[in-house]
Amino acid sequence: MTAPRPAEHPLVRAVRPVADAVGATIVPPDARERSDVELVWEGEVVGAVRLPPLHGALDRLIDAVETELGGRLPSLSRHDKQRAVRMLDERGAFTLRRAVEDVADAMGVSRITVYNYLNAIHR
Question: Considering the domain boundaries, does residue 2 fall inside one?
Answer without folding.
Answer: no
